[in-house]
Amino acid sequence: MATHWWQEVVVYQVYPRSFYDTDGDGIGDLQGIIAKLDYLAELGIGAIWLSPVYQSPNDDNGYDISDYQNIMAEFGTMADMDQLIQEAKRRNIEIVMDLVVNHTSDEHPWFVDAKKGKESPYRDYYVWSDPAADGGVPNGLISNFSGSAWTLDEASGQYYLHLFSKKQPDLNWTNPQLRQEVYDMMNYWIDKGIGGFRMDVIDLIGKIPEKEIIGNGPKLHDYLQEMNRATFGDKELLTVGETWGATPENAKLYSDPKRHELSMVFQFEHVMLDQEPGKTKWDLAPLPLNELKVALARWQTELGTEGWNSLFWENHDLPRVISRWGNDQEYREASGKFFAIILHLMKGTPYIYQGEEIGMTNAPVTDIGQVADIESINLYHERLAQGYSKEAILESINRKGRDNARTPMQWDDSENAGFTTGTPWLAVNPNYREINVAQALADENSLFYTYQKLIQLRKDHPLVVWGDFELLDTAPELFAYVRRYEGQTWLVVGNFSNENLALDLPGYQVVETLIHNYPGEIGELTNRQLAPWEAMVVAVT
Ligand code: TEU
């Protein structure tokens, strides 16, 4: 079986707006990423997933693109971008671009022209519909950012579709010319020497709006195969689809090498467990530990050789995992290491979201005025109108809002966490004096070095990349699994709780302690207590 570089690396996601600001405007920039490449090289990552840096009016922080072949002025210039690609390559780091082609900005020239009327050559690049018989919206499709997914274009009397904000009109992928424009744009970036694409909500491009079919439309995989042939198919690129609706079954459709589509997908099954069934992420429910383990394990075993996993706890849309499922007070470091160890020893390509490697936590808000994210702001107004209390809505936002992970990167304990000399676009988490990169680098027991060690283990031991996976049947709070490869066996064990936990795994003799988040080597695996969030990787016979 052919192997690929993107199976062996760890990817680091940079959210440029919040990473590092070099010109004092309070917004991170490309020179800021270049300045921190040595830091990322020290961590050991092999690729950066770069959230969008293209020209954008920033209704959704760059996920609303008005020019795919220009750089957002606040972030820098195309020369900076070329420099970033080259400087990263010098350190064996590939740049994976965010490909946002389910929609554009309403300020993209295509949409500006399309709005001129039905005769516009770009009209059909977007999705238009006449009003329903009663004169209202064409159907019941709902935007991910609240309200109808249809907005009336007064001039023509037709509605246009936007599955996200009004300023993110959906592209019409049934139009072959539009598809060719997207492929040409992708080739422009490939020619610059990028390492791949992270494909934003790619499972929506096969939609049939008139039938209210949104995800996993019938033509989706035809389009991806066509895209593969027209762009990256003959290149060694990392391509990862963001697919909220992925099951192990359809993940194989995307990532089975024989089908020539993508390298892998992001699946979100585990991310949706702590919400009321059938409702939204804002409708909070406790995390069922056993279901989490079972969900993750199913993905580990079901893809076999017909697909490839990606592994993540966090990204720019999700809360910080330590606050969400760990303990961001007393056991911040220990629980952070627990999540790192449990995830990075699984089979698949791991992703680290900026700040995760130093254990950044959710940033509390007490008033909607402190929130910048369009998703949370729209939710707030929608739920107020529906009669929810302010307190209840703010609780949901504090727990699940996207700004939690978007506060500026905490570099040191100087003002604004060393992120900017100006006023940060979003307030820095007040805990930056204790939690920051300088502190983490100075402490040899910090979470940073756990991540560094995990990345090194992956480089040194093919077992981590290629080994088989078996979940052990244990108490819900005990997360235990085995990896096996060419006669070697590793055991990964972690205590998913704030309490001591009995450990009794007879039948294994410890040969070597590879990683442990509490002091000391591991001897016996029987009649032992695990401390809160204690986690370890041991080679066994
Ligand atoms: O996210 C897709 C998406 O569905 C999320 O917006 C999701 O609804 C929510 O954040 C979590 O429940 C992608 C990008 O990652 C996100 O940042 C963009 O806002 C969105 O697409 C539109 O481009």
UniProtKB/TrEMBL annotation:
<keyword id="KW-0326">Glycosidase</keyword>
<dbReference type="InterPro" id="IPR045857">
    <property type="entry name" value="O16G_dom_2"/>
</dbReference>
<dbReference type="InterPro" id="IPR017853">
    <property type="entry name" value="GH"/>
</dbReference>
<protein>
    <submittedName>
        <fullName>Glucan 1,6-alpha-glucosidase</fullName>
    </submittedName>
</protein>
<dbReference type="GO" id="GO:0004556">
    <property type="term" value="F:alpha-amylase activity"/>
</dbReference>
<dbReference type="GO" id="GO:0009313">
    <property type="term" value="P:oligosaccharide catabolic process"/>
</dbReference>
<dbReference type="InterPro" id="IPR013780">
    <property type="entry name" value="Glyco_hydro_b"/>
</dbReference>
<dbReference type="InterPro" id="IPR032091">
    <property type="entry name" value="Malt_amylase-like_C"/>
</dbReference>
<feature type="domain" description="Glycosyl hydrolase family 13 catalytic">
    <location>
        <begin position="13"/>
        <end position="406"/>
    </location>
</feature>
<dbReference type="Pfam" id="PF00128">
    <property type="entry name" value="Alpha-amylase"/>
</dbReference>
<dbReference type="InterPro" id="IPR006047">
    <property type="entry name" value="GH13_cat_dom"/>
</dbReference>
<comment type="similarity">
    <text>Belongs to the glycosyl hydrolase 13 family.</text>
</comment>
<keyword id="KW-0378">Hydrolase</keyword>
<dbReference type="Pfam" id="PF16657">
    <property type="entry name" value="Malt_amylase_C"/>
</dbReference>
